[in-house]
Each structure stands twice: as C-alpha cells, then as structure tokens.
# Entry
Amino acid sequence: MYEGAVQDLIDELGRLPGVGPKSAQRIAFHILDSDPADVQRLATALTEAKARVRFCEVCGNVAQSEKCQICVDPRRIDSVICVVEESKDVVAVERTREFRGRYHVLGGVINPIDGIGPNELRIRELMTRLQDDTVKEVILAMDPNVEGEATAAYLARLLGSMEIRVTRLASGLPVGGDLEFADEVTLGRAFEGRTLVGS
# Structure
C-alpha cells in the first residue's frame, strides 16, 4: 500500500498484540510526524528494555536483576502464592493493594490449539517452590476463559494431593454492571460465589 520503509513500519506495528491495521497505520504516521528526538527516545526505550529486562529466577515476573522487587521484599508473606498467567497480571493484582503474598508467573495458559501444554509453562518451577512446606495456600488467578479454566483445573488436580489450600479468585458481576447485560456464565458464577449478608 505504501512505499518501502513506511509499509515495513506499519507491518511491524501491526504484529503487536491488539494493534490492528488501522491502528498500526495511525501509530506509524504519528511516529513519522514526531520530532526525531522523541522517536530516538522510543527506539532507545525499546532496545534498553529488550537488553536489560529479564525474568525473575524465582517467580518468573519481569525483573532487572536475578530476582524481582516482590521476591526480594522481606515484608511479603511467604505462606501464600498467587499464580497468574503473565507479568501484567501481577501489576493488576498489586493495584488492588489487597494481596501481600508472593507470586508465580506461568508464562501463559494451557492451549492445545496453539501447541501450549503444561510442559511449556512454568508449572515444574511452581511445584519445586511448594516442596519445602512454607506455602500454605495457592491462589489460582487465571483469566475466566476456556484456557484459563483449563489451566486452573489442571493445577487444582496437580495440587490436590498436597497439604496446601488451593483457592480460585471469585468471579461474577462487575461493580457498576447491569444484570440484563451479564452473560450466562458470568451470572452463573455470581450465583455460585454469593456471600452472606447480615448476621
């Protein structure tokens, strides 16, 4: 559609998750219209992130050294591990300021269509972390979709033989949501996870 370098830029941007052809084109032309110093800062940030960011050897979260900030924090609770799919999920849980335990990042979910089985995830590392009897509870915090449910069910079966409490994040109606717009699965989950009101 466009000549050489412009089309190459659009094509590369279009390969990013969540960026469709129109968005890729808009971003490309924004970059072309930007000041060269701004473009250089973006390029530097990309190459620096790729060169310096690694994955924590303990939990699999993004880090700039061998261990992430959460794993080296002595104020965290060692007896509870929240298992999440990706590092971005750690950020989402941390924003709630409700969880003070440790994390374990799987690096994805079981998805046979994409050729991702349990061996492609950091499940073996999780099992190793649970060997010393320090952890008393594992919270499964996968997305409430088919792949997330399959992964949670697999982990629940795997952990079932251990002396560890295994819990799953509650799911249901969002705050501010309307019943009439809720799908059947979400509404069903809300009924299953209902709580007692009053005494």
In short: The CA atoms of residues 172 and 190 lie 4 Å apart. The radius of gyration is 21 Å. The chain has eight helices and six strands. The helical segments are 4-14, 21-33, 36-52, 69-72, 87-96, 123-129, 146-159, 184-192.
